Amino acid sequence: MATSGSYTSCDFEIFGTVQGVFFRKYTQQQATKLNLVGWVKNVASGTVQGHMEGRKEDVDQMKAWLRTTGSPKSKITKADFSNEKTISELSAKSFNVNK
Domains of the chain: which residue ranges? Predict the structure, then answer.
């Protein structure tokens, strides 16, 4: 994947039963499948937060996946997306699970 051009970046926070159900691992797999870069992590409040970058159509597919699918044992009650903007370069080379 080229590292310059027109891309979209977006932050996300997922609410519900999303910790202890392999949500981060499945998110990383799905993001990698869609050629996205970024990160995902658990936060103390019980949600999962992250950041993704890639082609707009791939980011949109990932948003739909985060809203409705997640990991097999997750129960998503809400998905918030913020700071969506167009960027000219990707800021990472892969999608990582942060501790």
Answer: 7-88
pLDDT tens digits for range 21-37: 999 999 999 999 999 99
CB 43 within 8 A of CB 49: yes
Supply the pTM of this predicted model: 0.93
Which token pair is 70? 């997640």
Is 67 tagged catalytic? no
The reply to whether 24 belongs to the active site is yes
Asked if CATH classification 3.30.70.100 holds for the domain at 7-88, the reply, yes or no, is yes
Catalytic member of 42, 55, 67, 96:
42
CB 64 within 8 A of CB 87: no
